[in-house]
Amino acid sequence: MGGQIWVSLVKQEDFKCQKCLQKGHFTYQCTGKRKYVERDSRTRLMNKKLKMDEEKAKLETLAKSVALSQKNKKERAKGKKKKR
Ligand SMILES: [Zn+2]
């Protein structure tokens, strides 16, 4: 009963290894290398997004400091327009 039935239903030569994606052996018998799985790209994307957020934050800080220095310049030059 249980998992044993599933194993006995699948012939070893028909079984597709989940690790190297080759037929002929079970995953736990695998001696091959793990194939690159789609799931990895998702993690990569997340890392990329995280990095992008970081960059964005950096840029925002930069933009703020630039805006601040520009504002100071304007105030020093006695800007005609008053902001707020
Ligand atoms: Zn394998």
Main features:
nucleic acid binding; 84 residues; Zinc finger CCHC domain-containing protein 10; rod-shaped; mainly alpha; binds zinc ion; zinc ion binding
Task: Summarize this structure briefly.
The protein is an all-alpha fold. The chain has two helices and no strands.
Map the helices and strands.
Layout: H1 3-9, H2 38-76
The structure holds zinc ion (ZN).
State the order of secondary-structure elements, H for helix, E for strand: HH
- Give the helix proportion (percent range): 40-55%
User: Number of helical segments?
Assistant: 2
| Biggest sheet descriptor | none
Number of strands: 0
Strand content: under 5%
Provide the list of bound ligands, each named once.
zinc ion
* Mean model confidence by pLDDT: 80
Radius of gyration: 30 Å
Structural classification: mainly alpha
User: Which segments are poorly predicted (pLDDT under 50) over 5 or more consecutive residues?
Assistant: none
Q: For the terminal residues, how far apart are their CA atoms?
A: 76 Å
Oligomer type? single chain
Shape: rod-shaped
InterPro entries: Znf_CCHC_sf
Organism: Elysia marginata
Protein name: Zinc finger CCHC domain-containing protein 10
Biased composition (Basic residues): 71-84
